[in-house]
Design goal:
about 280 residues, two-stranded antiparallel sheet, transmembrane, PAP-like, PAP2/HPO_sf, PAP2/HPO, phosphatidate phosphatase activity
């Protein structure tokens, strides 16, 4: 009976992940972004088109691989120190505790990543904010016979005939920055995970220096989106906020990691011994 319950939990996890993944795929492939208008001579939309410094595939691959490797190293180390959760049994088969913990942590991380990406993509399509390279990609031609265009805000327009359809759709997906959201989600999740599970003797700054380096890497990803003319600064700020919120919620309320009291003793600073200096008579009172 217990075996069936564990297996069904695993199956349910994959069904939920698949459901979020399908929703994300549906938004990406089939949802049409809102066609927002523009003001004539808007300088914020007049920047030239540039190739991306960090592509979606590179960011996703590095982000997932980095978190997976960190989790595996930490859980294997804890298991070898004898401070893991111990073996989990499915029927007569023993599953090492580090595998079970890694599965749960990486699975929860993946679920959170999919949810934050779905949130970002849904907002992109609903809001339809134009990217800074709008003029360069679209080369818009206002419709002269449109009464809606008479007030200076161009609502009805056409892009030039040779414009790339994929770029035309993408130019309407500026807010928020999904790159910034995912990068900051990975960074904050990593910072929390290391803070809880990786305390050790020695340098007090080593752990925090590593955390800071990862945070700066995520910060750089966001800045690169502005430099590449892919986003306005406010798009990046919103992406950072979304990623941070999801990382906090997922780590604290979904993953619910074990506290530092369960960490390997070789990683934790020994408690300070407090010597009672009160005279014996005072203790008697």
């Amino acid at each position: 009976m217990a075996v069936d319950r564990i297996i069904w939990k695993i199956i349910l996890d994959f069904i939920i992940l698949a459901g979020v993944g399908f929703a994300l795929l549906a938004v990406t492939l089939w949802m049409e972004p809102y066609h927002r208008g523009y003001f004539l001579n808007d300088e914020s939309l007049s920047l030239p088109f540039k190739e991306q410094t960090i592509s979606v595939s590179v960011l996703a691959s590095v982000g997932f691989a980095f978190i997976a490797v960190v989790v595996l190293i930490v859980e294997i180390t804890r298991d070898r120190q004898g401070k893991g959760i111990g073996d989990k049994y499915i029927g007569d088969s023993a599953v090492p505790g580090w595998i079970w913990e890694s599965y749960q942590t990486i699975g929860v991380f993946t679920f959170g990543a999919a949810c934050q990406h779905l949130t970002s993509d849904l907002a992109k399509n609903v809001i339809g904010r134009l990217r800074p390279h709008f003029y360069d990609v679209c080369k818009p031609i206002p419709r002269a016979d449109s009464a809606l265009n008479q007030l200076g805000y161009i609502v009805e327009y056409d892009c030039y005939a040779d414009a790339d359809p994929s770029l035309i759709k993408d130019m309407r997906l500026s807010f928020p920055s999904a790159h910034s959201s995912f990068a900051m989600y990975c960074a904050i999740f990593f910072i929390f995970y290391v803070q809880v599970k990786c305390k050790w003797r020695g340098s007090k700054l080593l752990r925090h220096a590593i955390q800071y380096a990862v945070f700066i890497a995520a910060w750089y990803v966001g800045l690169s989106r502005v430099v590449d003319h892919m986003h306005h600064w406010s798009d990046v700020a919103a992406g950072f906020l979304i990623g941070t919120i999801y990382a906090c919620l997922v780590f604290v309320y979904v993953l619910k990691p074990k506290t530092a009291s369960t960490l390997p003793t070789t990683w934790v600073d020994p408690p300070e011994t407090v010597t009672n200096t009160l005279p014996r008579a005072a203790l008697a009172r």
